[in-house]
Write a structure and sequence with these properties.
heterodimer; A: 355 residues; alpha+beta; two-stranded antiparallel ribbon; 11 strands; globular; B: 173 residues; mainly alpha; two-stranded antiparallel sheet; 8 helices; 2 strands; flat; disordered C terminus
């Protein structure tokens, strides 16, 4: 493990999970498994004073340094890192806004491939996350389970046989597991059937959320489906439930895409080509408009309606790199929103205009 | 750092309420626990977690309960929906169980548990944490000779992993 005080990833390309290697990657962007854990004999982070929090952070840092990971991990001290670096990690879906914007000792310990990230001193002392491209929940769980065991040899977790892994928020207690998939569902949105996903989700006790998780908007037709129950169900039960429901959403989206192509092709093509046109021509463009238009061209690429030189990888990456912190990282200076909108349009033209 | 209670202006504010008003504006209220306990209205309508509680009287008024390990009061837990430490799960157990039942539909953990076979490892880790803490204190207090000794022990204990760490630690302990 190496300690860093700034995010030294490329900053212009995305993590491995953005590739399209996983199953159903045209619809399922990524699968994620998160385990919430706390160190035994300590208060939870919200109730810690500065000294105890520092002690926990050091203890965890030291312990993680002695865990064998498959890749050499980077331990980014967020209390020392520039604020922009925290934002970059949020935009890359590696850490939460709460951790980035928090105060006091806290860190992100991530694999360079960005398929593993451990948040240190967020709401819980450790939040281990594994990310995979496509619909690969079982693979994500199996790695998370294994890493959790390896960490448990170095850190004594707060655990009770009655309530399981003890967490700060009672919604996470038990397995501490949140398994989620990020779905791209433009046809369900265009056809105004997306409400049915929400209904089906709530019937199955699954949460449906927006792009950046809890309390966020469904920008760019992205929806996150995750379990809500952590106590009284085993990890396998939780995964099994998602593995049963998510394919139905995938199938529904596929059928609607087919239907749109057959019954409303001109309007569908018009929408996609207009989006392509604007992205290749705009001189200034907001984040929201970019997400909406990228969603349309993502659908266009998946349906084979756009030039084949444009790949899903490129589109997936633009979702990340057109975000505010990434633009500022690329420009190497802080930018006002208006300036960012111009830089964003420049980036999009450079990436899409040359095709 | 800690702000004063808006009502009594005496105690530190530990209960922080954010209400979304009808015109979508936010109103923030910062109260101490005593004043929060007397507060009517907002606390009672504080969203999912608090509304899922059974009435306080049902389980013998847990209002006065306080966790001895972290100091979290029942009202603070109720308003924030967050626990302060692992011990809170025992202290607030009687009001937690109905809440957990509502959230999860169950109150008994099924699923993985920390691997018992790693208990030996964990005791060595504990020893390492202790040694590291002693080392830091020695450095801070400029007791350099002792620090050097502790550093060597720490290194031996760390590398003792290959030949049985607990043995190694005992040999030089």
């Amino acid at each position: 493990m190496r300690t860093a005080e700034s995010f030294d990833g490329e900053g212009v390309s995305g993590g491995e999970w953005l590739s399209t290697r996983g199953a159903h990657a045209d619809i399922v962007i990524s699968s994620r498994v998160r385990l919430a854990r706390n160190v035994r004999n300590h208060r939870f982070a919200v109730k810690c004073d500065g000294a105890e929090r520092a002690e926990i952070e050091q203890h965890v840092r030291f312990a993680l340094g002695r865990v064998e990971f498959d890749e050499e991990m980077v331990y980014l001290d967020l209390a020392r890192a520039p604020a922009l670096d925290g934002e970059l990690l949020v935009e890359r879906h590696l850490i939460s806004r709460e951790l980035a914007h928090g105060s006091g000792p806290r860190a992100a310990c991530y694999a360079p491939s960005e398929s593993v990230c451990i948040m240190v001193c967020e709401e819980d002392h450790l939040r281990l996350q594994v990310l995979r491209s496509g619909f690969e929940l079982d693979a994500a769980w199996s790695l998370a389970d294994d890493l959790d065991d390896r960490i448990a040899r170095r850190v004594e977790y707060a655990f009770s046989s009655r309530f399981g892994y003890l967490t700060c928020c009672p919604t996470n207690v038990g397995t501490g597991l949140r398994a989620s998939v990020m779905l791209h569902l433009p046809a369900l949105v265009y056809s105004k059937h997306i409400e049915k996903v929400f209904q089906a989700g709530s019937k199955m006790n699954l949460a449906v959320r927006g792009l950046y998780g809890e309390g966020t908007q469904a920008l760019g037709d992205f929806y996150q489906i995750s379990n809500q129950v952590a106590l009284g169900l085993s990890e396998q039960d939780v995964l099994e439930r998602l593995n049963r429901v998510v394919p139905q959403f995938i199938d529904y989206e596929r059928r609607l895409r087919d239907a749109l192509e057959k019954s409303d092709r001109a309007r569908l093509e018009d929408r996609i080509w207009r989006a392509y046109g604007v992205l290749r021509a705009a001189r200034t463009i907001s984040t929201e408009e970019t997400l909406e238009l990228l969603s349309a061209i993502r659908l266009g690429v998946n349906l084979g309606l756009l030039p084949s030189a444009l790949t899903i990888e490129t589109v997936n990456e633009l979702f990340i790199t057109s975000q505010p912190a990434h633009l500022q990282r690329l420009a190497q200076h802080v930018m006002e929103p208006r300036e960012r909108d111009i830089a964003r349009a420049d980036l999009l033209r450079a990436k899409l205009g040359a095709l | 750092m800690s702000e004063k209670c808006q009502r009594c202006q005496k105690h530190a504010a530990t209960v922080h309420l954010t209400e979304i008003l009808e015109n979508q504006e936010r109103r923030e209220t910062h109260l101490c626990e005593q004043c929060a306990a007397q507060q009517e209205g907002p606390l009672e309508t504080m969203g999912l977690l608090s509304s899922a509680f059974t009435p306080a009287t049902a389980s013998g008024d847990p209002g006065g309960l306080r966790c001895s390990a972290c100091g979290l009061g029942y009202m603070e837990f109720r308003s924030r929906g967050r626990l302060g430490c692992p011990h809170c799960y025992e202290v607030f157990r009687s009001s937690l169980e109905p809440l957990l039942e509502k959230i999860h539909g169950g109150t008994q953990h099924v699923g993985k548990a920390p691997d018992e076979s790693s208990a030996v490892d964990r005791s060595r880790e504990r020893r390492l944490v202790e040694l590291r803490r002693e080392l830091q204190t020695a450095v801070r207090e400029e007791r350099y000779e002792e620090a050097a000794r502790l550093r060597d022990r720490l290194q031996r204990c760390e590398s003792g992993e290959d030949v049985g760490g607990a043995e190694g630690a005992r040999a030089d302990g």
